[in-house]
Amino acid sequence: MSTMNLGGIALAVAVGALAGFTAEAKTLRWSSPTDLTTLDPYAHTESFTTSMLHHVFDPLVRHGRNLELEPALAVSWKTVRPDTWRFELRKNVKFHNGNPFTADDVVASITRILDPGSRARGDLVAVDRAEKVDDFTVDIVTKGPYPLLLNDLSGIYIMDKEWMEANGALKPGDVSRGVSTAASTSAVGTGPFKVESFKPEAGTVFVVNPNWWDKPQHNLDRIEFKPIKSDATRVAALLSGELDLIAPAPLQDLQRIGNSSGFKVIEEPSLRLIMLSLSSRPELKTAPGQKNPMLDLRVRQAMWHAIDFEALKKRVMRDKSRNTGTLVAPQVPGFAKDNDQLFGYDQDKAKKLLAEAGYPNGFKTKLNCPNDRYINDEQTCVAIASMWTKIGVQTELQTESRATYFPRRDRGEFDNSMVGWANMPSMDGFATLSSLLAEQKDGYGGSNAGAYSNPKIEELTRKAAVELDEEKRRSMLVDALKEARDTVAYIPVHQQPVAWAMRDGVEIPQFPDEYVRLWFTNIK
Amino acid sequence: MLKVFLSRLGQAILVMLVVSAVSFVMFRFVGDPVASMSRESATIEEKTELRRSLGLDQPVVVQYGHFLARTLSGDLGISYRNQRPVTQLIAERLPATLELVIVATLLSLALGIPLGVLCALKPNGVAARGVQALSLIGISTPTFVTGIVLILVFAVSLGWLPSFGRGQVIDLGWWSTGFLTASGMTSLLLPGITLALYQLTLIMRLVRAEMIDVLSSDYIRFAKARGLPARYIHFRLALRNALMPVITVTGLQIGSLIAFAIVTETVFQWPGMGLLFIQAVSFADIPVMAAYLLFVGLMFVIINTVVDILYAVVDPRLRARSA
């Protein structure tokens, strides 16, 4: 114990002496409500953990300052066959333990994530295998022509093969077989920061990696991350000076933090778009034996016109959300300005449309919502249910925790339900087509809980899935999203805001994918 | 004595079985871990496969049977959320919770007993009335409100104490302690007070009531008549007899403090078992939830047994009866 302390002091003195020449060590202390689940990049599917591990690991390609895809551990790539991509790897890159980065690491990493026991293997579902060509060239073979390989690879971090071998972690941990590996609690990557300590729920400390291959655009020496689940405590810890940054900051406290001297708030719309899925089944669960009124397009239009989005934005979202008319955010491929026209709040028109469809007295239905998944989700649904009831669509609202809500939604128990969609991690509108709009078959339609079905969209989805010409592919996405809008597949509600709060002197760019990228952060 | 011990053991095992069965039935209502475990754009096939590989597609009775068999062989399984052994997770969090509970118990005893005596000796004094009124507030304010108010006053406004976490901890083997550093000790204060408040008022009121009861009994009157000094009567004779129920209640309350710590731990981001449990519930992490409930059940059983034995030690009459 005492020797360790002495060593620690000696190190501290040495670091202090070094730092004395330049400036004092720059430490950023920050907090978020969730903690890292694990340090094993293939053992989870949470975007927060992915964003945190990006500080430690690098992918082959990454999202840059403007979220464009740029080279990371791969310097260039080309398709040698429709199903084979050849990647040239970056040379002179070292892992945190000093091991050189080579093609073997890429092959071992891809093999590891494709293992049946890997939790994240769905993130690379289109890939069949990786093959080494030489020490710095790798072929990645897909199961067929696949346009989104680069998007998928941007979330796949490369691990060190030697380290995995030495620690028995070549295969990922597997809950069903009761196997856990050393990779859950230690991480060796090539990224801008190294993990110094990892204590779940108490904090994770990162120190700068002085041998990072890329030129640092930050001035941090150390990152102390401390999760704080309670919103009030997190804000209090920022205001009392125990933290430099909180992300996200709770909406109800933004004004208070912004008004405190020495603190500031930054915000922007996130990629996550909240929408309502409407039942397209032959019958409603609330009225078995009768035809589902929502099969009539006019009824769906009426339900869209019935919602006062401005009021929702002002009252429920404290003016922080962005209203939208389409199903993807502007940064996402597939977005088109023509599709993003608001539908217009008009109760009289809504009632007229209902009457024309043969429901002058409306009908009964149900709306199901989570109460702990999206920002102010329950309040949003309370407002929408009452707006629908006003035009005669008598809506019974049921809200519940995400842990029970999403399994029920998957089982198709709901007529109308709320869902948020960020197209992450691929950051491409194809995910909206394949998961929300396509029918539930052939692995498509995983979140299409309203059983929406449209032959035109089915065709476009299958075509876009294999179209390697980017321009053609994007126009297919745009066409499909226009069709979805014209047929009211879903009612888009708004884009959620991302809001962060920090002390003055912290300069950090904000990204709509809600990732906190501290390698772009400068502090004074 | 042995017979008593064996019968207690039998009861304890029965209680544990019931606790595990009830908690397993409850899991059906907390949700399905598959939703939290799979990515957002997962296909129905992916989810079905995951559910099958975890054995969640089987009837609850079968799942419970598997769980029981594994637990009896000493294996509590692996957390669905972070794929680490559950025993390891609990061992990591146990020190934080136990240290918090120890501090809260000591605080409540150190303040509760003297205040209770004070209220009993001078029931109509100004101090006693003040303490009584304050205790009403203590017993009726919810823990999270107390916690937030304390944070606002002592961390944000005054800046004296940290608002969250354990501060710096030192590892002694597998036990991490906050008792040995200044930041660890200051970090214990606010959550300790928050957790102690309810118990403090409870003990105070209990001591007061018992003391008043004992003070009016015959042998105290005789002791007074004999001219024994007031100090001796109050503290040697009366308080000692009044402490009997206090021991029971304190013991039982340690169990509920561990359980109640969930709220305090959430407010103060105290990395203990309560926080672990809350995380597990929101993820539907069945192995962790099951282990936590078993653990809390076990704590209650152990504490109750120890209290029973202590009783026999303190009160010779009980010893005679059970023999």
Overview of the molecule:
The complex is a heterodimer of chains A (524) and B (323). Chain A is built from 15 helices and 19 strands. Chain A is of the alpha+beta class. Among the domains of chain A are: 43-178, Dipeptide-binding Protein, domain 1; 271-496, Roll (Dipeptide-binding Protein, domain 3). In chain A, strands 1, 8, 9, 10, 11, 12, 13, 14, 15, 16 and 17 form an 11-stranded mixed sheet that branches. In chain A, strand 14, helix 11 and strand 15 (393-400) form a beta-alpha-beta unit. The model of chain A is unreliable at 1-22 (pLDDT under 50). Chain B is mainly α and 323 residues long. Chain B folds into 2 domains: 34-73, no CATH class; 89-286, Orthogonal Bundle (MetI-like fold), CATH 1.10.3720.10. Helices cover 77% and strands 2% of the residues of chain B. Chain B is built from 13 helices and 2 strands; from the N terminus they run H-H-H-H-H-H-H-E-E-H-H-H-H-H-H. Chain B has helices at residues 2-30, 33-37, 44-53, 60-72, 86-121, 126-140, 143-157, 182-215, 218-225, 230-267, 273-283, 286-314, 316-322, and strands at 170-172, 175-177. A two-stranded antiparallel ribbon of chain B has the order 1-2. In chain B, a hairpin with a 2-residue loop joins strand 1 (170-172) and strand 2. In chain B, helix 5 crosses helix 8, helix 5 crosses helix 12 and helix 10 (230-267) runs antiparallel to helix 12. The longest helix of chain B is centred in the C-terminal third of the chain and has 38 residues, at 230-267. The radius of gyration of chain B is 24 Å and the shape is globular. The chains are: A alpha+beta (524), B mainly alpha (323). Chains A and B meet through helix 6, helix 12 and helix 13 of A and helix 2, helix 3, helix 5, helix 7 and helix 11 of B.
